[in-house]
Amino acid sequence: MDTKCRRYWIAEHAFVAWLPTATIFMNVRTNRYFAIGESESRALSGVIHGWPDKSADAGATGEARCNERQQLICMLLKNGLITENRLNGKACIEAPSIADARTGVGPDTDEHPPIHLRDVLRFAAATACAFIRLTLRSLHYTISLCTREPEREVHGSDSATIGHVVRTVSKFRRIRAWSFGARNNCLLHALSLRTYLAYHGISASWVFGVRMHPWAAHTWLQYGALVLDGSPEEVRFYTPILVIPS
């Protein structure tokens, strides 16, 4: 289909992931997900900027196909996932690639650094900040704020850097165990940890992932190939839909 026929854009607050059997939309303004099947995904080829051509007949016409496409477009417009306004939209792109998770900082870590009062206070401040952002503000606002934050990094050799990250996450994990569980609280957990790490000058990638069988959405932090306060087994079956780089 000719480029001039691509009249729709992905909404600036929406993100897309292509899975083998479905395409998933994520709306960070409402913190909701929307899935469409393979045939529906093919129907969008040629009408959304950046949408991949899923088949050789992507530009095929026909009353049934056109009706299916129009109903799908109306549904996506209604849910705020696409727009005709270029100023409020963007071309469709995949989430930035991240390193394959190879190891993690979990309960089996050998690092058990002492916890001081300042660590507890930083944890309390980080968790309170994350809770307020997620409760009083939208996820969209929180993500926009995170992308505008100045980059932080630790300096030194790779081994020293990784060691500092592991010790810092170990402290967070041990304090967090007395505050709230990470299970079913992945959004609060990831944002709290990200804020806590920032207090220590550490920046990690914030990853949002989805899977279909069974359906689940999850978010976690990664420092290179290191999953922070988790394990590779917990995230290996998720496809990234949004990655906020470190």
Number of strands: 11
Binned strand content: 15-25%
Regions with little confidence, pLDDT below 50 for 5+ residues: none
**Could you spell the SSE succession in H and E letters?**
EEEEHHEEEHHHHEEEHE
Mean pLDDT: 86
Indicate the percent of residues in helices. Answer: 25-40%
The total number of structural domains is 2
SS-based class: alpha+beta
Please give the count of helices: 7
Spatial sequence of strands, sheet with the most strands: 7-10-9-8-11
Ends: how far apart?
37 Å
Radius of gyration: 20 Å
Shape: elongated
**Largest sheet composition:** 5 strands, mixed
Task: Give a quick set of tags describing it.
36% helix; 246 residues; 7 helices; 3-stranded antiparallel β-sheet; 11 strands; alpha+beta; 2 domains; Outer Surface Protein A, domain 3; 5-stranded mixed β-sheet; elongated
What does this structure look like?
The protein is of the alpha+beta class and 246 residues long. It has two domains: 3-90, Alpha-Beta Complex (Outer Surface Protein A, domain 3); 103-244, no CATH class. It is built from seven helices and eleven strands. A five-stranded mixed β-sheet has the order 7-10-9-8-11. A three-stranded antiparallel β-sheet has the order 5-1-6. Helix 3 (117-136) crosses helix 6 (186-199). The chain is elongated, with a radius of gyration of 20 Å. The two termini are 37 Å apart. The mean pLDDT is 86.
